[in-house]
Protein 1
Amino acid sequence: MTEILVSALLLMGAALMLLAAIGIIRLPDLPTRMHATTKSGALGTALIMIAVAFYFAEVAVVTRALAIIAFIILTAPVAAHVIGRAGYFVGVPLWEGTIKDDLKTSYDPETHYLRSGFEEDAPKKPAASKKTVKAKAKPKR
Amino acid sequence: MIGFFWNILLALAWVALTGNFGGLNFTFGFALGYAVLAIAQTQLPAIRGYAQRIPRVLRFVGFFILELVKANLKVAFDILTPPWHMQPGVIAYPLSAKTEFEITMVANFISLTPGTLSLDVSNDNRVLFIHAMFLQDEKKLLAELNEVERRLLEVLR
């Protein structure tokens, strides 16, 4: 029974990783490629580690497998975010099928200031700089 | 968070008192500590609401795994079939998360759901810019993101 479960999990994990690889080749631009790699990659690794945990079924292995899943789930999106963000601001062109870009209009390449579009309804200072926002947020913590 | 540390401390105390350092005994001690904290939380303001948190965490994990699988299938279908069904774009998502920790967690989980990738936060921490793969219905996407954020904040707060 566990044999079947382990095989199914391993196959699904490997299939997801294959999918991520195909995605890197097929998808047209940087952000969409990041979509394919991070999610399918992370979920694929998670499934394979679950399979490992089921196969060995020992405390030492299971805890390590769970730790690996936790760390991948914590780090994969951060890496994807940093790569995607760097690519965007360096000016890697988006795919021509991209239908909307809200970020372009609110970003000022001179000052690197990113507007939210909500500055007008902020209570007092309209153009709140990051420092003042941080100072305001601190006492709440 | 404090409640969780107390729970681990109680479990360690149980392990030390029984003298059996196995994982199963630790789990049992943890369950006992959880019960003790659930009873004691009405008297102790520092750990109030701790016992309600674990079911919430489990519910969030279940919900999130379901979302993850659903959205993965969607992206997988688009990668494998020749014509592109995707309509990618960058949208602004107004955050209800306030502190930097909350924003980090929300951005992380939004990045983990396939089809959305958080790109940047506006300088005043009020809007998250997200690259989405399927922008056919922006309102629906925003509602889904809102659902993820609401459930996550329920766990964190």
Protein 2
Amino acid sequence: MSSKHHHIAVGEIVPLSYLHRGERAKVVSLHNDNHALRRRLLDMGITKGVEIYIKKVAPLGDPIDVALRGYELCLRKADMAEIMVEKL
Amino acid sequence: MIVALVGNQNSGKTTLFNTLTGANQKVGNWPGVTIERKEGHVKGTDITIVDLPGIYSLSPYSSEEKISRNFALDANPDLIINIVDATSLERSLYLTTQLLETGRDVIIALNMYDLVKKRNIHIDKDKLEKMLNTTVVDISAKTGEGVDHLLEHIKTHDIKPNKHLNIYPKDVSEALKSVENDLKLADVDNTYFYAVKTFEGENDYRKHIKPESEKKIEEVVKKYDMDGEELIASLRYDFIDEVKKECFTDEEVKIRESQANKKATSWTDKLDKIFLNKWAAIPIFIVIMALVYILSVGLVGGLTVSFVDALFNGSETIELNFFGVVWEVPFEIAGIGPGLGGWLESIGASPWAVSLVADGIVAGVGAVCNFVPQLIILFLCLALLETTGYMSRISFFLDRIFHKFGLSGKSLVPFIVGVGCSVPGIMACRTVEDENERKASVILTPLMPCSAKLPIISAFAGFFFATYAWIISLSFYFIAIILILVFGIIFKKYIFKGSHTTFISELPEYKTPNASYVARDVWDRTMSFIKRAGTIILLCSVVVWFLGSFTWQFQYVDGELITINDSLLANVGMCFAWVFAPMLGGNLSWGAAVSAVTGLVAKEEVIGSMTTIAALAGGEADLFGPLDTVFNFFNPITAFAFMTFNLFSAPCFGALGAMKNELGSNKAMLKSMAFLTGFAWLVASLIGSVSWIITAAGGSI
């Protein structure tokens, strides 16, 4: 992903979009400004405390396929920026 | 009895629907195949099954998901079959917890049980039934296993009544109960469901809630340090975690989890390493799409067009075109047209009757049928792209590009489906979540050359570009893609401005296509093309023939005293032939004008009309041939210009109707139509002017 977010230390709290392939993180909070999107993310199981694994990255770097709760989901980076996570 | 099928996308609802009703609805391997509700009957019963678009929750996100929510909640089905994908139980059960909060009876069909067994996952069905407090039946919609059992439950209504599964801790339950009581007093239907919704913060029923209940909600929400919406969602998932723990044997859960975590273990992951590879993905995609084209139009098209044409119009030799290498093969056949014409003459039919059959019907319909063999291959390739799961990958990796141009990766599905036919393509735009991206996709889908436009491309390119025909034809698909991207960005900048866009999807697993489904799909699409040739194209050809065969004074055009230029058709066409003059290098051609307009009925009719007119004028269905006196002015440049206009101007009435539905108004549809036509006219005219300038300067083309 983007070169400006190289080293994310374990325990650091960052938007999910900062993580690289193969990394995992725990959801800390969801932003509130886009209600429909937030609702959808909640429905898809992105709730506080859930573990997310960055599984596949599209060849052009966006969108990204993440694994959570035993299934996979493709998200755009812009949407992932709304999810604050703690790196594991 | 009305039974609704509700479940996640790509969970096998339509497969089950087909098994239950014996119908043949289209199934595919991408999320969002079903975009409308469809009904079918179970034979020998009064049971009506309603297949609904896939949803993840009862808070719908895209327009097709609203159809499902509204049906499940408001249409009062007698029973809901909640189809649960046993291979991803967690996500599927989220919707289940919501369904169990409605007042409807729910039976759970645990689908893909064959896969579960194969992967050695154990699901304790009895425990699951107990925890969810409803009836659970394990089935495999694909193999039909367990479907009889499910049907038996439905017939005898042997289903536990829905007693509103309560999955919440005590404090939340109490707040909910208080809200529910307020709603009961206000005479609201489905009180428990709306109590939860109100707790989540939905405003529809807020006015009925008493201050005490409001206070209770506030207290609970504060205690958990989340808003109502997040709290309910995470409690649902907590409950599901509990179910998972209880109903999956521990060891299996561990294996499953470790598999999900390890890199590239499954087949799907291995294939994705290649198909989604950073460097290889796009070259592979281009090669696959080019192969589709080369195989259908290049190979099969080149080898069959002349043969089918000979069947209709008779011939002594046929041409086999193998990518520009042409063999003339002796093949003597009278052909249907001349054959029927000769027979009619022999029984003493009048010349106009002979002409109606040979020049009108057989020439017009035949011109369209020439393309059936290559369409079969095209439809086969499209069906393979759809059923293997590759199409979803294309959406996934092109999203980055499409998003920049105001579209969604999901727009790719309409564009690929649109290569077959614009109508299902336009309807497939419903899966695009963002309203602006969806509308842009609807307007731009008709730019993709559909199968009905293929006859136009092939007829012109085949004659005017001979050996390079396939390159010219292929170029139109690239031009279409470039136009789509250019318009996308214009729309984003000036029309559908400023919005936050989302792309949420899932990558389905790769699957070996089911041969009978693929065959069925190809058959359906091919038959619908042939059916059109036998109905609308036939009718249109007769009308064109009639107008081309008679004058205002109702005199028959005999080709000697009265020529086709005196016909009704020529007179009508001349009124607006000037519009087409610029793209035809300054030629005033009523024939081209009329043919382009008949393309509104169906695009292949452009060639149907031209062939009929050429036949009327020259006595043989020999478009651009030596006997053709109407269209002999075409040169490669004007041919290219005329193709450009017909391909990118307003689509046929069928597609315009679909656009109207998806854009929501006649006005929006007419605007899009005017926009597409205006643009196509401008570009075609610019190209056509080149020919004008060259000839004016004394050059020849």
